[in-house]
Amino acid sequence: MPGCTPINGLRLDADSLAALERIRNDRNVEKYLSGALSAGVFANIFARSNLPTAAYNISQTDWDLYKITLQSVPKIVSRAIEDETDRMLLHFQKKNDYKQTLFWQGLYNGCY
User: Fold this and answer.
1) Taking burial as the number of CB atoms within 10 A of a residue's CB, which of 8, 27, 57, 89 is the most buried?
2) 6 conformational bin, left if phi > 0, alpha if psi -120 to 50, beta if neither
3) How far apart are the C-alpha atoms of 25 and 104, rounded to whole Å?
4) pTM of the full predicted structure?
5) Per-residue pLDDT tens digits for 29-38
6) Calpha distance 87→104 (Å, rounded)
């Protein structure tokens, strides 16, 4: 990837560590949301249902909407992570911290 160069002597400060923790939390939320969406749909179909009711619920479920919603979760989380890296990049540019700026620029560009 372009812009993925090693940064010798990089020490992440408290702001960077906190931002990285927020990014980790965003990834955990992504996993939780995907699971919760699926669990909710299937619980709605099968909870307290007999076979004919479950079959009817399956036929009436909007599977296209379910697919679109499930595909949206990673996009939303990626956008939140992009916003976080952009804020940190601006923060360290303002502080004139070259190594931290380089780190966040690389992360923004997809280097990890």
Assistant:
1) 89
2) beta
3) 18
4) 0.76
5) 999 999 999 9
6) 9
